[in-house]
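cache lookup: miss for this entity combination. No prior model stored, computing from scratch. Input as submitted by user K.M.:
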Amino acid sequence: MSAPTVIAQGALEQFGNGLKFLVSSNTDEYGGGQVGGPGEVWDLLSKHLELSGFAVLIAVVIAVPLGLWLGHLGKGQFAASTVANVGRAVPALGVAAFLFAYLGPSKSNVIITLALLAIPPLFTNTYVGIRQVDRDVVDAARGMGFGGFRILLRLELPMALPLIFGGLRTAAVSVVATATIAPLVGVQSLGTPLIARGVYGSAGQIGAAIAVALLAIFCELLFAGLQRAVTPKGLKLGGEQRHKRRALTLTPTRKVQTP
Amino acid sequence: MSLPAVLAQSSIKPRDRSVTGCPQNNDLCPGWIADNVDRYVDPFVRHVELTALALAFGFPIAFALAVLAYRRRWLVGPITATTGILYTLPSLAVFFLLQPVTGRGITTATIALTSYTLLILFRNIMLGLDNVPAEIKDAARGQGLSANQQLFRVELPLAAPEIFAGLRIAATTTVGLATLAFLAGAGGLGEPLFDGGDGIVFRGNVVFCGLLCVLLAALFDLVFLLVQRLASPWQRVGTA
Amino acid sequence: MDAATLELRNVSKHYPGAPKPAIDDLSLEVGAGEICVLVGPSGCGKTTAMRLVNRMIELSSGDILLDGRSVKDRKPAELRREIGYAIQQIGLFPHQTIAQNISTVPKLLGWEKGRTARRVDELLELIGLDRSLAKRYPAQLSGGQRQRVGVARALAADPPLLLMDEPFGAIDPINRERLQNEFLRLQGELRKTIVFVTHDIDEAIKMGDKIAILKEGGVLAQYAPPAELLTFPADRFVEDFVGSDRALKRLALQRVRDIDLWKAATVRVGEPSAEVARKLEDADVKYPLLVDDHGKPIGWLSQRAWQGERVTHDLRSNADPIVELDDILRDALSDLLAKDSRYGPVVDKDGCVAGVLSIEALSHALAANPEDLPSPSERAAAELGE
């Protein structure tokens, strides 16, 4: 048999074992207990979602009102792009390890880390979403006697919703992906079998990797659907054009990324 | 079944008792780091290598895809979807999913990091090309530039700001992700940041390596910014 | 390169899925060195028709001949390098200097550097732009300057045919008029064949040797010189499109020197009165016009001034308005109306009386055969000759 075929067969077998890990429990590497199977996967998944959920919730509570407020006032252009850039440059693992080193292993450390990760995309998207609302429309509303708060609530917020949900989508997907590293700082998540090879074996690693990948894709699709659902019909029509203009006007040298 | 204690044990190596001096007390230890700066050089170089390789492979691929999609619009959807999935997959998962095929090491890490840059680069190159004003494209075509001449002489130079912005985003993102490359057996700053590689774990490690990562990201950012400015003198002139 | 002839032969453009053609069986010939203006309401396909010529848009049927050669036999990119192209939004390349912008086509044609550089200098002078601007970027120029550079770029390789799509459309009215005049002067020198698209009938009348009026669906309503168009509109559509003031518009096409003026009886102080009566018999105006020793008009004489032996300085009114031979008829008429006068003395360059312009002479001119009217190119050439 040729070398590539051997590799392919080996790989297939490992993936098979990985899938098996997800659906049925096996003896662990020490031979002392049972690992894997729906029960444990479900347990790890719920822990994973708990970390992610709290993190996103905290980020939303902090970033969205701030973005709405600054965007409405038209202040903080510099802050918006700085937050976006710095947020990208600091490695999540660095933050997690830092908190771990100073506060020890705890869920709250991981949640704080993940929330910090989720704040930049949420904040910038909210800010940009408000800023990209046509100033003529806002002027017209003001002319009709709308107050500042009413403009924000009735006009700017609905038009910014698609972008805010775009930010939520980015934030949620990266939080779910990053929660995988929680076991590195002593907190359990779906990443546990990835890190603790000594317990779960290579089947556990592959199985967990598959589970994490599927979870991220599911999350992406879910939030993409949500984003589509909140887009007002009028905005859907000229969608392409609006996106281009936004990217051009807000950050001429740095594009805001909304994957 | 939960075994946090076991996990903490198995994933975080106990401190190496043989190390004496500052790190033993789990402090910042700037002096010790200065004396032992050698142990950070290899991971740093490897980190630069990983980032550079990811961009060196990612850019030509994204570029080719963008040019292709620019000429055949119907490809935009499928390419965005494909690179989008690659972008969505957690890098940590990909590091492990690739191992049965490519084994542990720098190859696996480079493939994963490269796949991660594709969406960012592809989107920004497309955005840059699409943002070239229609009248300029029309004038180029009307004067008899061939399709390739239009692309290379007019559209790409004008798309440079968006393309470089993409490179900068991709570079900083990759620097961050490469901290996990050690889990694929590819080294990088994640190793000393997390467990010291040699089992020497203390707070100073985390702070110092984190700073190195941020510095490296800033450095890549600066280099691309500089290249962009040098390559587009027309952007610096004032208007009449 | 000399000017080329252009012929559109039964040209049609059908977009797949569209219920009606964009261009429907359009035929027209443009002589070498002529300006053909395509004009019509939006959606009439005038720009489409122009873009068919350099194959920016492909023909559905029919043929276009450039100097007798079908454009269909040419490679599009090569064809376009031979045809100057200027558009309303100009489309200068922002990343290239003015000199680089102008040398785009020469570079594509592989001219050697020295020749290209000389050509750039030549064109900058032609469009009246300082040579120091050659190294600037488009963003550093004013709108009018950019527009001139756009024209220079279109002229760079000395193309025998120029396509211009509303080239002055984005410029304010005052500068537009200046650019139009400059361009006509330039055309007097260059004598290129030009296809010029506009939606503005006044611009069409001003610029066109011949005007093609298109109606919706790309149907040719009329193809004729401006004067003919204004005098004999082919149908209701053309009549409406040129406007109800089309007779007045014709006045813009001619100068005072172009029409038959009335003869005046010019007299000087101290002339025998008998002479005045004799001169009046020959003249068209029933009042004698007093002039000074150099023949410059002073005013219309009263009856009393020549009752005695000799003419005295006794005016019934002054000479206003005084009209010049080079005045456009529309402006001259406006002067007459402003002074509430039925006629005014016409003077030549030296200020000497050359005749009298009257409302009657004007209306006579409007009734004249449009064939007699000069084309813009001729007018431009005549001005250059002076």
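stored under new cache key. Chain A has one domain: 26-250.
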